[in-house]
Design a protein that fits this description.
This protein is α/β, with parallel strands linked by helices. It has a single domain, classed as Rossmann fold, CATH 3.40.50.1820. It contains 12 helices and 8 strands. It has an 8-stranded mixed β-sheet with strand order 1-2-4-3-5-6-7-8, with helices on both faces. It starts with a helix and ends with a helix.
Length: 331
């Protein structure tokens, strides 16, 4: 059965349109959408896919600008491996409440608000559901949120995968200069809550210029979601969000030693969005605290760009195999 599934992962792009409009669409129609009120009264949306035959769950914490609308294929593959799947739309993006009048601006008051929302979500809908095993999967910003959650609640989760987590952001300038600009902006609300330099409203990026994936099919599908559902679009981050994101990276490295949950960290070999050096530092802190990451170092998917779970088949299959094998060891 597992080898059949792996073959499916290796050859899916060959008939991607048929898969997307057939089996995947049928599966996604089974989803249940929910909402709860997060920190500061903001509505937070989520989706879940359940089967009475499953006694395990994978909770997905998505990346910046993302929505569960983008994740049906990942959910489909995990579900077929025997897991219920829950996916949260973080505040300020997806179908959750926005914080600014210009809904394209990626913004948060403080990074801990994401963690508070996630913690509330976990308590109400994951912990309360009586699963035998609870797993988590965090991508990019969602990986940073998950790491801070694990540092605060190391017993909540049986095992967690951090996929290209945002523990450090690659900036177009030296960090000392970025901090000077961010501190200057922080004192000027009109600038602080505006798009960070070089960014702006959401616009479709041609595939040839994208830094996220080598998979044309999956990239095109992601773009279609944003084109078809304008309300889920998010553009560049605000200056304040960048500042909060950098501070969160510092906090993660400071608190990583408190994480006792088994952790697997996946790293993209062709990463251009987050700083892979921060992954190495995180694994060193975990090892020094006596509970190293799986394999003791980041597991590198050579040839993959930032969105490992949306990469071309051969890279994505490699990652999914590693993830599902890791979860299986903690059943």
């Amino acid at each position: 059965m597992e080898s059949v599934r792996y073959q499916d992962w290796l050859t899916r792009e060959l008939q991607f349109a048929a898969f997307s409009t057939g089996p995947l669409l049928d599966f996604w129609h089974r989803r249940e959408e929910g909402e709860f009120i997060g920190t500061q009264g903001l509505p937070i949306r989520f989706v879940r896919l359940r089967s009475p035959r499953h006694d395990k769950v994978v909770v997905i914490s998505t990346g910046r600008i993302e929505s569960y609308v983008k994740y049906p294929e990942v959910a489909y593959d995990l579900f077929r491996c025997g897991y219920d799947v829950m996916i949260i739309d973080h505040r300020g993006q997806g179908r959750s409440g926005r914080l600014l009048a210009d809904t394209h601006r990626g913004h948060v008051r403080q990074f801990d608000d994401y963690v508070s929302d996630f913690s509330c979500f976990w308590q109400r809908f994951v912990a309360a559901a009586h699963y035998k095993r609870r797993f988590a999967l965090g991508h990019s910003m969602g990986g940073a949120i998950l790491a801070l959650f694990l540092a605060a609640q190391p017993d909540a989760c049986d095992a967690a995968v951090l996929c290209a987590p945002m523990f450090g952001i690659r900036l177009p300038m030296p960090h000392w200069l970025a901090w000077k600009i961010l501190e200057w902006a922080e004192k000027r609300p009109a600038v602080r809550d505006y798009y960070a330099i070089g960014t702006g409203q959401w616009r479709p990026m041609p595939f040839m210029l994208n830094l996220l994936t080598h998979s044309w099919q999956r990239y095109r599908r992601s773009l279609r979601f944003y084109a078809d559902f304008p309300e889920i679009r998010v553009g560049g981050p605000t200056y304040h969000w960048v500042r909060e994101g950098l501070l969160a990276g510092n906090a993660i490295l400071a608190e990583a030693g408190a994480i006792t949950t088994p952790v697997l960290l996946l790293q993209a070999g062709e990463e251009k969005i987050v700083d892979n050096r921060s992954h190495d530092a995180f694994c060193r802190v975990m090892a020094a605290a006596g509970h190293p990451c799986d394999g003791n170092t980041p597991v590198r998917i050579e040839g993959a760009r930032h969105e490992i779970l949306f990469e071309k088949d051969v890279l994505r299959a490699e990652a999914l195999n590693i993830i599902t094998a890791f979860y299986a060891r903690h059943h």
